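Known limitations

Structure tokens in this collection are predictions and should be treated as such. Users comparing against experimental data should check residue numbering before alignment. To illustrate the layout, the record for ribose-5-phosphate isomerase is reproduced below. The input appears on top and the generated tokens appear beneath it.
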Amino acid sequence: MAVAPPHLFLPNMPPPPTTTAAATSSPPPPPLTQDELKRMAAHRAVEYVKSGMVLGLGTGSTAVHAIRRIGDLLREGKLTGVVGIPTSKMTEEQATEAGIPLSDLESHPSVDLAIDGADEVDPQLNLVKGRGGSLLREKMIEGACKTFVVIVDESKLVDHIGGTGLALPVEVIPFCCNFTVERLRELFPDSGCRAELRRVGEKQVPFVTDNGNYIVNLYFERDFGDLNEASDRILRIPGVVEHGMFLGMATTLIVAGKLGVTVKEKSELAG
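Generated tokens:
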């Protein structure tokens, strides 16, 4: 009796079931949340931490992941002799909870490494920081460090500083603050600058920094030009304490995105 070849089917006999890529492949994993991306970048940054280092501990929702990771490594004995210098009262509380020994710049004027987030990062690794209100202490500590690692998710990357249309914070003294607000607004007439005193709560009282100062938020409709020139003009106004542009300070940028974590070193930038 003849037998049909394996590739043929006898009449009235249904073919075997077929499989398709759609049927056999697993559904794609859900996209990572912004907080998960922040944690990825923070954990990568902590790989730069070595035992015995003096660390600048940043402020905010991204930096807290690094603080917790450092605390875990200390408890596990994988890091020893680390001292942290917090950039805000909130960071001080988080680091204490994580079990990180703390100090200050007076006791440790040279900081080995600082890890912090950023609100904006341009292609030259210039930053906007301080929308959480801690820009002065951040700049003092991160300006004293040998290596400054910035950790962000890809939503923080901009073509130019001010490119998100969100606030560029400026810390000012409370005395005659409305006068200072108006002086800041007048600095950038060609950039569509709007200056507003930051207020909080139902009563809309002025936001007060850890240093007892106020914050003025600057919003720009257009690029305001040379960053160093803008920095000098802001700082020349009496009543201004510091601004949130961190220019030329970052040495390493770690970005978490849909395709994973990427690292960019300042030394790689063309002159």
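For this record: Helices lie at 21-24, 34-46, 63-75, 89-98, 135-142, 177-186, 227-235. The first helix runs from residue 21 to 24. Please report discrepancies through the issue tracker.
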